[in-house]
Design a protein that fits this description.
The chain is an alpha+beta fold. The chain has 6 helices and 8 strands. 35% of the residues lie in helices and 25% in strands. 29% of the residues are buried.
Length: 225
């Protein structure tokens, strides 16, 4: 089996003195793991930053054995954010979510496109707000749709609008921007939004699949404080 594709680097781990086990999410083949010979060399490791876009050649003897990669750099996405702790932390968190929530060798071009759009989000003015919707879109593509508009009550008081979660177990206000995207969001709203989406991730996706909350997402939330 031999194919060429375009992919984003998800992870890299040392395999031997000169080689790495790497994971990429490709356009036509989904998430793929393989060995990269010479991956520790200065020539290659210089562009093996998590999130970088790579031309990918994959070769395996059969579907039951791990294959081998050859890469060429298409676009070094990650270095643009090396001097921005918050955005770099967000990048690490987003890529880790893709890595742990997607299945091996299951093509999904919508998720590939979502990764491409992520880098546009990091360069947008309201990037944190847009990233929250990015996470919700990812969960939706994986079959976990948080339909907030069906779960809240609209409250008007003193010419202000509030949204409250319809739940007998908790009394929780929902940031307006999550219901009506045209609402602006301050830092408190954004933190509440990230916490709400994180709770949904924990209860509806991670725990039922015996997965832990990614440390990288917790570190991203911490970086915003």
């Amino acid at each position: 089996m031999n194919w060429d594709d375009t992919g984003f680097l998800l992870s890299k781990n040392k395999y031997s003195e000169n080689s790495l086990i790497v994971e990429v999410f490709t356009k036509d083949h989904g998430k793929i793991s393989g060995i990269l010979f010479g991956g520790t060399s200065k020539k290659i490791k210089s562009y093996l930053e998590i999130g970088n876009k790579l031309y990918t050649n994959y070769n395996a003897k059969n579907n039951n054995k791990i294959g081998y990669f050859k890469f060429e750099i298409i676009k070094a996405e990650a270095p643009f954010f090396f001097n921005n702790k918050k955005k770099l932390s967000c990048l690490t968190s987003a890529i880790q979510l893709i890595r742990i929530l997607t299945a091996e060798a299951q093509p999904n071009q919508k998720i590939f496109n979502l990764i491409e759009n992520f880098f546009l989000i990091l360069n947008s003015e309201d990037w944190i707000k847009n990233y929250i919707f990015w996470e919700l879109k990812l969960f939706s593509l994986l079959g976990y749709n948080l339909e907030l508009k069906k779960m809240v009550t609209r409250i008007e008081k003193n010419e202000n609008v509030y949204y409250q979660l319809n739940s007998q177990s908790e009394n929780r206000n929902i940031p307006n921007f999550l219901i009506e995207n045209n609402f602006s969001a301050n830092d408190e709203d954004l933190n509440q939004g990230l916490k709400l989406v994180g709770d949904f991730l924990e209860k509806s996706i991670l725990k039922p699949n015996n997965l832990n909350q990614p440390i990288s997402r917790l570190q991203f939330l911490s970086s915003l404080k």
